[in-house]
Design goal:
The protein is of the alpha+beta class. It contains 12 helices and 23 strands. The protein has 2 domains: 218 residues, no CATH class; 236 residues, no CATH class. Helices cover 22% and strands 24% of the residues. The strands form 5 sheets. Strands 15, 16, 17, 18, 19, 20, 21, 22 and 23 form a 9-stranded mixed β-sheet that branches. Strands 2-1-4-3-5-8-9-10 form an 8-stranded mixed β-sheet, with helices on both faces. It has a two-stranded antiparallel sheet with strand order 6-7. The longest helix has 23 residues. It is globular, with a radius of gyration of 25 Å.
Length: 497
C-alpha cells in the first residue's frame, strides 16, 4: 500500500498533465521536521525563501480535549523537541509523512503560536496558500478529535453474512458479504466533513490522502478521488475550485474564442461554484460562530485572484444579485435550527451584520438564483474588523440596490408570514427567524428577478433611510393582480444594511 501511494504521488507530481507540476514549494514560516523513524520531532523555523516538499494535516481538534499547542511559553522548547507522547492523530500524520518520504509537516496547532494574536492573524491569513502549495494534504477524515488517530480506527459496515474460505490445506479465511447502497454517500458522515475549518483545507489542496472509516482515498485535480484499493464504496465531494487557482489552464475556457462567450462562461462558472460553496459550507459546524468568515478566508483569498472580483461579506460583486435569494435550508436543518457546537448562539436572532448576508444566520442555507435578473447593485461598502484580514470578520456592510420595491401591505390578497422553513416560500414571507415577526406595514419586497416565480428580498425599515433583511419570498406568476402591481412599479434605490 505504501509503495502504491508513493508511486501515485510521484506520478502526480511529475506526469499528470492536469495537475500542478512538482516544483519545490517555499516552506511556510514554521513546519514540523519529522525526520526519520524514531528521530526527534521538532518545530523548524524556515529560512527566508527556504524550499522543500511538505505535507499539511487536515483534522478535527475536538471539543473538550486538552490540546497540545505551540505557545509563547513553549516555543523554544518545541524548536528543540516536541514531547515524545503526541496526540494519536498527530503521531499518525508523522508516521504517514515518514512512510511516503516527506520530511516537513504543517499542523496549525504547532506551527501557529496560539496565544500570540498577531502571529495567529498573520498565519491564518496565509492558510489558503499553505494548503494550495503543499505537496500533499493528509486528511484525518475518520477522527472526531485529535486523540482518536486515523490509521487504525476503521469502522466498516456490518456484514450481512460471512462465509468460510479455503485456499489450500494450510490457508483459510473468511469472506464478509455487505450490501452496497448505491444512494449512500458515506463520506459525508465522516467527522471532518461536518466541520467548517476543514472545508477549505481539502478544496485548496492539489493532492490529498483521505483516511476515512472504510478506506484510503487518493485525490488530485486531474484524476479526482480514487481508492488505494478498489472497494464498492464511492467517495464524493460536492465541488471543486477552478483550475486557475492552481495556476493551470482552463481548457474549456481556452476553446472559447468569442469575448462575450468567454465572459458568460466565466460569470456562470463563478456563479455556480460560489452557490455550491454557500450551500455546503453554511451547514458546517463551528465552535466559535465568529469564525464563519475567517474559516472561509483562504478560499476567498485565492478566488479573488482567479476571479478578479471584490469580496462582499460572503458574496462576490459580480454575482451578488444571483445569491441574495438565500433561505433557511430544510433538508440540512437540525431539530434546533442550530449547527452543532456553536457556543452561546441562539437560533432566534441574527448574529452580527450585515442582515443581507447568510453569514449572520446560525443555520444552513440554500440559494435560489434568478434566471432573469431585474435588480442592480449600484453601491456597496464593507467595514472590516482588521485591514490585515480583507476576507475575514466584518463590523458591518451595506448594499444599495436599484430595484422595484413593493409595500407588502399593498398586495391583495395580502401575504402571510410562513411559520416553518420550507422552500421556496410560495406566496408567503419566509422569515429568517420565525419568532421575530415584523409589522407588515413596515415591510418592503425588493424584486431580484424571476426563475419560475418572482423572487424578493423582504426588508423592514431600520435606522435613517436604510432597511434590514427579515426574510425571503416568492410570488406566483399566476396571480395577475400581483404581477400588474410589480409591472407598474418604478425602480428606486434602496439601501440595506
Amino acid at each position: 500500500m505504501v509503495a502504491k501511494i508513493r508511486r501515485w504521488l510521484e506520478d502526480c507530481l511529475n506526469k499528470h498533465l492536469s495537475c500542478p507540476r512538482g516544483c519545490t514549494p517555499k516552506l511556510p514560516r514554521r513546519v514540523l521536521d519529522v525526520g526519520a523513524d524514531n528521530s526527534t520531532i521538532r518545530l523548524h523555523e524556515s529560512l527566508e525563501n527556504e524550499k522543500a516538499q511538505y505535507a499539511t494535516l487536515s483534522y478535527c481538534w475536538g471539543s473538550g480535549v486538552q490540546q497540545l499547542t505551540t505557545t509563547t511559553s513553549n516555543l523554544h522548547d518545541h524548536m528543540l523537541a516536541l514531547p515524545r507522547h503526541l496526540p494519536k492523530t498527530i503521531s499518525d500524520a508523522v508516521e504517514v509523512c515518514r512512510k511516503v518520504g516527506i520530511r516537513y509537516l504543517w499542523i496549525d496547532a504547532f506551527c501557529i503560536i496560539q496565544d500570540d494574536s498577531s502571529d495567529k492573524s498573520n498565519e491564518i491569513a496565509k492558510m489558503g496558500s499553505i494548503y494550495k502549495n503543499s505537496t500533499v494534504a493528509i486528511v484525518a477524515a475518520s477522527a472526531e478529535k485529535v486523540t482518536d488517530g486515523f490509521l487504525w480506527n476503521g469502522k466498516p459496515d456490518e456484514p450481512i453474512a460471512q462465509l468460510p474460505m479455503f485456499v489450500d490445506n494450510s490457508t483459510s479465511g473468511t469472506v464478509y458479504l455487505r450490501m452496497h447502497d448505491s444512494d449512500k454517500i458515506y463520506s459525508s458522515d465522516e467527522p471532518i466533513f461536518q466541520r467548517a475549518w476543514t472545508f477549505q483545507e481539502l478544496l485548496l489542496s492539489p493532492r490529498a490522502l483521505v483516511f476515512d472509516s472504510c478506506q484510503i482515498t487518493l485525490k488530485c485535480i486531474g484524476h479526482g478521488f480514487q481508492p488505494v484499493h478498489e472497494t464498492y464504496l464511492d467517495f464524493e465531494f460536492p465541488l471543486e475550485l477552478p483550475v486557475s487557482v492552481f495556476g493551470l489552464v482552463d481548457e474549456d475556457l481556452a476553446r472559447k474564442k468569442n469575448d462575450d462567450i468567454r465572459e458568460y462562461y466565466l460569470t456562470n462558472t463563478q456563479n455556480q461554484i460560489w452557490k455550491q460553496i454557500i450551500c455546503e459550507y453554511s451547514g458546517r459546524d463551528l465552535t466559535l460562530f465568529d469564525d464563519r468568515l475567517p474559516a472561509l478566508a483562504g478560499i476567498a483569498t485565492e478566488l479573488a485572484k482567479s476571479w478578479n472580483d471584490v469580496y462582499l461579506a460572503g458574496f462576490w460583486k459580480k454575482t451578488i444579485i444571483q445569491h441574495l435569494g438565500w433561505y433557511r435550508s430544510t433538508p440540512a436543518l437540525r431539530c434546533t435550527g442550530l449547527p452543532r457546537n456553536i457556543e452561546g448562539v441562539h437560533c432566534t436572532k441574527r448574529i452580527g451584520s450585515p442582515s443581507w448576508s447568510w453569514i449572520t444566520v446560525p443555520y444552513s442555507v440554500s440559494v435560489t438564483e434568478p434566471n432573469h435578473i431585474d435588480a442592480k447593485l449600484i453601491n456597496t461598502g464593507v467595514q472590516l474588523v482588521s485591514q490585515k484580514s480583507p476576507f475575514g470578520m466584518v463590523k458591518g456592510a451595506f448594499i444599495a440596490l436599484e430595484a422595484r420595491v413593493l409595500r407588502a401591505s399593498d398586495l391583495d390578497p395580502p401575504l402571510k408570514f410562513s411559520g416553518l422553513p420550507f422552500q421556496p416560500y410560495h406566496d408567503a414571507i419566509g422569515l429568517d427567524f420565525e419568532y421575530q415577526k415584523p409589522d407588515l406595514d413596515n415591510c418592503r419586497l425588493v424584486y431580484l428577478g424571476n426563475e419560475f416565480n418572482k423572487m424578493f428580498l423582504v426588508v423592514q425599515k431600520s435606522e435613517g433611510r436604510a432597511f434590514q433583511r427579515v426574510g425571503y419570498a416568492e410570488l406566483s406568476k399566476w396571480k395577475r393582480e400581483w404581477i400588474d402591481l410589480l409591472s407598474s412599479t418604478q425602480r428606486e434605490v434602496i439601501v440595506i444594511t
